[in-house]
Amino acid sequence: MISGKNYIGNTLSAKGLKTYKTFNPVLNTENNSTFTEATSEEIHAAVNLATNAFKQYRKVSGAKKADFLNAIADEILTLDDELIQTYCSETGLPEGRAKGERGRTVGQLRDFAALLKEGSWVEATIDMAQPNREPMPKSDLRKMKIPLGPVVVFGASNFAFAFSTAGGDTAAALAAGCPVIVKSHPMHAGTGEMVASAVLKAAEKTGMPNGVFSNLNSSGIEVGRQLVKHSGVKAVGFTGSIIGGRALLDIASKRKEPIPVFAEMGSVNPVIILPEALKNRADAIAKTYAGSVTLGTGQFCTNPGLILGIKSEVLTKFINCLSQEIVKIDPSVMLHPNIVGAYEKNKERALSQVGLKVTADFDREVKPNYARQAITTVQGNTFLENTTLHQEIFGPFSMVVQCEDAVQLETIISKLEGQLTGTVISDNEELINYSDVIDALQNRVGRIIFNGVPTGVEVCPSMQHGGPYPASTDSRFTAVGVHSIQRWVRPFSFQDWPQELLPKELKDSNPLHIVREVNGKIIIP
Amino acid sequence: MISGKNYIGNTLSAKGLKTYKTFNPVLNTENNSTFTEATSEEIHAAVNLATNAFKQYRKVSGAKKADFLNAIADEILTLDDELIQTYCSETGLPEGRAKGERGRTVGQLRDFAALLKEGSWVEATIDMAQPNREPMPKSDLRKMKIPLGPVVVFGASNFAFAFSTAGGDTAAALAAGCPVIVKSHPMHAGTGEMVASAVLKAAEKTGMPNGVFSNLNSSGIEVGRQLVKHSGVKAVGFTGSIIGGRALLDIASKRKEPIPVFAEMGSVNPVIILPEALKNRADAIAKTYAGSVTLGTGQFCTNPGLILGIKSEVLTKFINCLSQEIVKIDPSVMLHPNIVGAYEKNKERALSQVGLKVTADFDREVKPNYARQAITTVQGNTFLENTTLHQEIFGPFSMVVQCEDAVQLETIISKLEGQLTGTVISDNEELINYSDVIDALQNRVGRIIFNGVPTGVEVCPSMQHGGPYPASTDSRFTAVGVHSIQRWVRPFSFQDWPQELLPKELKDSNPLHIVREVNGKIIIP
Predict the structure, then answer these.
(1) Mutate which of B256, B493, B496 to test chain A, going by most A C-beta atoms within 10 A?
(2) Which residue of A has its CA nearest to B52?
(3) Which three-class secondary structure string do you get for B246-283?
(4) Among residues 199-218 of chain B, which lie with CB inside 8 Å of chain A?
(5) Size of interface A-B (CB pairs under 8 A)
(6) Which of B88, B90, B178, B301 is the catalytic position?
(7) B461 and A59 in contact by Cβ < 8 A?
(8) I need a surface site. Which of A80, A335, B322, B391 has the fewest CB within 10 A?
(9) CA-based nearest residue in chain A for residue B497
């Protein structure tokens, strides 16, 4: 069923000479299928097809785009067990996770379909003419959001379904009215091709123009570079490393026509444990966090890589407890030999830093590609002086910083780079005494969590998944939830435009019955 | 009253050695005051003060920020005739324009004050907890917009009030909760200082933190460069040339922490005149456009620099008529000798292009700094081949392109760079026969106008002032109207946060009575 070819629109194509295979990290062996990397010619063909498709697709009604998205969800489910097995063989993740992530992916598609059917997301804003206004008559002005054009989506290594081929970025871009060209992630090219076939089947069934979706194979960085440079591409979505995301941002910024890049990148997701909470329940918190640090072998972008407390006996007790708990957990496999290799290397580098103390490092033999979890601790001063310690280590690793006092805690928070999340563990209303710490934290993160764990990103409208750089390249947008559609659209005004030629969203009669702002007032139909 | 010094917060400072004066283009002589350019030390002091002020200002309530903005408007009006005279002496613009633009500026401030008092602009979104959800309980999530941090605003040469010191960018940033550092425009530094004094008086009267606003003098590009590079600056607003805006975007993109730059730059604002309209009223359209091309000596970013029609006798008649009408208009003064110099140079360069025919060039003697308006025409093929002809010529200049047919018209439109506006002049429902042309136009512009002129930008929520690059650096935002606040804010989520510590906008009780999205439904209180 897997051809190993690129989809240039709905046509399979493999003109290139560069081939590669995916890898099963559990079996520690290559998978069978051979994938052919897209050539410059194929990249060009995909972008041109998308540019042509955009002419039609941008005018497709919300209801029809909703049918398309729902059909993608249906087709993904139709692939059933074969897709789940391919996912597992290319990621090493267990079947439960595969099914859960598939459910999330299908759910995202259906959420956007519902958004489109409801229709108010275009933020229709109407200011009616005032022909008799003095000293100048006022024109009739009507504004709504329209799509940017073809969007390139980069598959993420750690979410082969939910942030890849038909994941959040793709669902949001297709919902917006933008054709999508996926740069498939090389670690799960087979999963990518299968999902791409589902998207294209859905496009055909619902009458979408050819070129609304393409899927390009790539083993290195060249296909991505060429795509982001291409003048026909109007925006980019990426989930992955800071180095990768920044490279794409730099390419996009240097274009003759710079384009928006939304990259969701690294984060250490600081967790602040306040003294009362530590006093009351150090053991329980340690147990919870041993689980959160190792969840999915630490391969979530919201993994808690940094835990901060104020130096005390109970903090020491917490560190010991967390260290004991974490080595009780059976090591698990990472996505790919390269990823476990990078993890071990980054961990080594961290452990070699002066002043860092290792309190847990799983030291029994592990199977190939399995990651050995570790907990470390460091004094606040040392952490402040050495920014190497601020960097993310992608994997089941966390560092507990022992701050001198609340002032140092605030200083450390304010010196951190931008983060996806910040968490506060607190008891008995002690939080109100730490308002400066919380303010500093709010200024560095996109989402703040009370008495929970950062792992687990709920897909709902009020979720902010993003944050100040380098958590994302543009903190003004989210990667998760239906509001993420705003990344791919722009406001557009019609001035004195004839009623009969206005889009339905802006006609006086409001035939789509959407919520609109009319003459400064929100009107619910 | 004008000191020539910088405002570092509320302190006047002039530590530098570099000085300059502004110029009165009508009298063709320098004005009296001497301005001292800000030093690196002063730039640093202003940014640090803004960073500190942000800690408090970001938490100031909407109602109090509204008082601040209204107080700025009041203080600007208090400066009365002295301010108007300073504006006129530094721009050469007539008193009527000065008063009109002051009215617009004051109006913008009051619009944002009203937006803050109403409060719904934060887009509060709430998804309540579902503790019993299967397979996993759902957390309580609440999201709203929060400010980015200190914003640098560059004064625009052509709008000393409305797009400068306390203009749209500043009003939007202060409304958002961001401190503002203005890089004053050297051509109207005196107007800038006076308006800055009004802002600071208002800040003092309404109890805003020192550093919420600074005003820095600058005669060249160095102050702006240093500001955009400064790690304490979190966003940039600019109105001006493509070269200037792009230079700032490039600096911002190369920072360790890239920051958003919203630059509203050049545009030729294409106007399409369809055959029926030409047949019916070539004379009247010509008269209207002679006025629009020369309005404010062609110094509006929405100036119609490109007029497109399909080759015919009536188009020839229109060109003749427009040419006759435009030379009937008395030439007027430009803002500065440098600007009239650039206009004459750019016009020369255009006129020297092969195939361009000059049909009107005001040839009588004009006073110093007055611009001689011109109309030119060119065949569609020639225009398509020579992209030099696509460039904006800032001033009272326009070019009529004679297209072979509707297909060539569409081709030309689709090859244009991004534009602020596109206008269609059309009669008797002929528009429906040109849907491909209109689609192409919509894809290249931010606002589309029917049977009007692009000059005149209404300040209202449904106005889109921006557009695809290079009309702006980010087509997803507007520079005009209250929605422009979205440039300076980011979404922020609270997860399971205690009710008593949530911002008022997100509390269950909705004490501010704002419109919110709750569990997927828009709720009007």
Answers:
(1) B493
(2) A440
(3) HHHHHHHHHCCCCCCEEEECCCCCCEEECHHHHHHHHH
(4) none
(5) 198
(6) B301
(7) no
(8) A80
(9) A450
CATH number, domain A271-450: 3.40.309.10
Q: Spell out, as residue ranges, where chain A has pLDDT lower than 50.
A: none
Whole-number CA gyration radius for chain A: 25
Q: How many helices (H) and strands (E) does chain A have?
A: 13, 25
Architecture of the domain spanning A6-21+29-127+140-265+475-488:
3-Layer(aba) Sandwich (3.40)
Closest CA to B199 of B218, B184, B187, B186: B184
Name residue, tokens 């709430």.
B126
- Tokens (6 digits) for B305: 């620099």
Q: Chain A partners of B138 at a C-beta cutoff of 8 Å? A: 458, 460
User: Which class would CATH give B7-19+43-129+138-265+475-488?
Assistant: alpha beta
Burial of residue A398, with CB atoms counted within 10 A of its CB: 0-12 exposed, 13-18 middle, 19 or more buried: buried
| pTM (two decimals) | 0.98
Q: Measuring CA to CA, which residue among B316, B305, B234 is closest to residue B266?
A: B305
**pLDDT value for A203:** 98
Measured distance CA(B476)–CA(A196) in Å, rounded: 28
Are B522 and A515 an interchain contact pair (Cβ–Cβ within 8 Å)? Answer: yes
Q: How far is B272 from chain A (nearest CA, A)?
A: 14
- How many Å apart are CA A140 and CA A495, to the nearest integer? 6
Please give the single-letter amino acid code of residue A492. Answer: F
Rg for chain B (alpha carbons), in Å?
A: 25
Strands A6-8 and A332-333: unpaired
Residues 233-272 of A with CB under 8 A from B: 249-250, 253-254, 257-260
**ipTM of this model?**
0.97
Comparing CB atoms, the residue among B139, B458, B466 nearest residue A141 is B458
B301 is catalytic: yes
Burial of B131: CB neighbours in 10 Å, binned 0-12, 13-18, 19+: exposed
pLDDT along chain B (525 residues), means of 10: 96 98 98 98 98 98 98 98 98 97 98 98 98 94 98 97 98 98 98 98 98 97 98 98 97 98 96 97 98 96 97 98 97 96 95 94 92 97 96 97 98 97 95 95 98 95 98 98 98 97 97 97 93
